[in-house]
């Protein structure tokens, strides 16, 4: 990407990142402004919340055997992709603002590619969870009969597609040889790629909307049939809980992603008077928020998951409060250990009972 050869006709391989930013009208300040500090502070806060919450989900799924089912494997992969999203965005926070002009074109594409990969993986995981819930509910089962092999194939396919989406601009869908087609928000990206990426995510959103709408209509129909054999209160509670869950899933997705997708479309379509740069970073932070909203919706509403969270957090708190519990091991000299072992062996051979202090000490040694 960064070469020392002569530029080809119509291409700008040897120009700096600052050149493309200047040509696209996205001027970077050489000093930190108040707005930059606000955006970076918000971004870092969101990053740490995303990383911690999704790491907690991953540990909970690994710890509790009750979560060793296909749906929880998909939720674990969703948490992994959101965790990677938090790390990618953390990397962005340390390469933004005045630091951007110091990047090489290769470093710039890596920075953007990590974000594209992580956010695409999160969206695809949301779609996979929606399809799995659809299959499970329509077969009237608690857990899907999907095999582990199929789950692994789905997870691998999600990451392959996400990585490809992150590599597409690097592999040629950029504007290094088409300067007039450079994006304003991402000055090394082609406008046509931004339109493609935005429309692809909107299509994914539409599919999710269709899936959850069909689930809602099906469950409402089933609840009406069940209401003939149960109380009216039970029927209303079932419908309300489903509406609440569906509203949370779709509402948070729309709230977090729509502003950014709209900005990408406007930029890709060349809307010069839309002033997309004014809202760009705030929309990016809002889209990142979806990565810690996902654990809340899909995991924190699960009673077993909440219980496992409490166990993990309490264990961490106890370890911090009492350093002796961190390892549970008492380090003694070798001579002391041998002396205690000999005393215990002699007592067992002679049939003489150990004194209570000795018994307690020997018990701690072998525990």
* Average pLDDT score: 77
Strand element count: 0
Task: Label the overall shape.
Answer: globular
H-E string: HHHHHHHHHHH
What is the number of helices?
A: 11
- What gap, in angstroms, lies between the N and C termini? 60 Å
Q: What amount of the residues lies in strands? A: under 5%
Helix content: over 70%
Taking pLDDT < 50 over at least 5 consecutive residues as the criterion, the unreliable ranges are 325-342, 353-367
Main sheet record? none
Q: What structural class do helix, strand and pairing data support? A: mainly alpha
Kindly provide the radius of gyration, computed on alpha-carbon positions and rounded to a whole number of angstroms: 28 Å
Please give a structural write-up.
The chain has 367 residues and is mostly helical. It is built from eleven helices and no strands. It has helices at residues 17-24, 34-63, 70-93, 105-138, 148-167, 191-226, 232-268, 280-300, 303-321, 334-350, 356-366. The chain is globular.
Summarize, please.
70% of the residues lie in helices and 0% in strands. With 367 residues, it is mainly α.
Main attributes of the structure:
367 residues, mainly alpha, 70% helix, disordered C terminus
Describe how the helices and strands are arranged.
Elements: H1 17-24, H2 34-63, H3 70-93, H4 105-138, H5 148-167, H6 191-226, H7 232-268, H8 280-300, H9 303-321, H10 334-350, H11 356-366
């Amino acid at each position: 990407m960064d070469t020392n050869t002569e530029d080809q006709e119509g291409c700008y391989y040897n120009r700096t990142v600052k050149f493309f930013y200047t040509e696209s009208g996205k001027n970077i300040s050489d000093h930190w402004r108040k707005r930059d500090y606000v955006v970076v502070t918000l971004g870092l806060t969101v990053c740490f919340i995303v990383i911690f919450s999704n790491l907690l989900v991953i540990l909970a799924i690994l710890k509790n055997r009750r979560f060793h089912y296909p749906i929880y494997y998909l939720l674990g992969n969703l948490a992994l992709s959101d965790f990677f999203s938090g790390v990618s965005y953390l990397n962005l926070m340390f390469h933004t603002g005045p630091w951007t002009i110091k990047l090489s074109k290769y470093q710039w594409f890596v920075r953007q590619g990590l974000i594209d990969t992580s956010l695409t993986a999160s969206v695809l995981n949301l779609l996979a969870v929606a399809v799995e819930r659809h299959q499970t509910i329509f077969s009237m089962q608690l857990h899907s009969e999907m095999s582990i092999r199929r789950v692994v194939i789905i997870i691998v396919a999600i990451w392959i597609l996400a990585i490809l989406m992150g590599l597409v601009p690097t592999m040629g869908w950029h504007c290094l040889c088409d300067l007039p087609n450079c994006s304003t928000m991402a000055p090394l990206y082609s406008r046509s790629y931004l339109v493609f990426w935005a429309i692809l995510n909107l299509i994914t959103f539409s599919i999710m909307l269709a899936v959850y709408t069909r689930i809602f209509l099906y469950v409402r129909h089933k609840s009406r049939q069940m209401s003939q054999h149960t109380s009216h209160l039970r029927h209303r509670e079932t419908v309300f809980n489903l509406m609440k869950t569906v509203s949370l899933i779709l509402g948070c997705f729309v709230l977090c992603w729509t502003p950014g997708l709209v900005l990408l479309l406007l930029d890709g379509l060349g809307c010069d008077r839309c002033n997309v740069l004014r809202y760009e970073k705030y929309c990016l932070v809002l889209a990142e928020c979806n990565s810690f909203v996902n654990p809340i919706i899909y995991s924190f509403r699960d009673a077993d998951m909440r219980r496992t969270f409490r166990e993990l957090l309490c264990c961490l708190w106890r370890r911090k409060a009492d350093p002796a519990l961190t390892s549970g091991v008492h380090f003694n000299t070798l001579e002391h250990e041998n002396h205690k072992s000999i005393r215990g062996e002699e007592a067992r051979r002679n049939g003489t009972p150990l004194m209570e202090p000795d018994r307690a000490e020997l018990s701690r040694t072998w525990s």
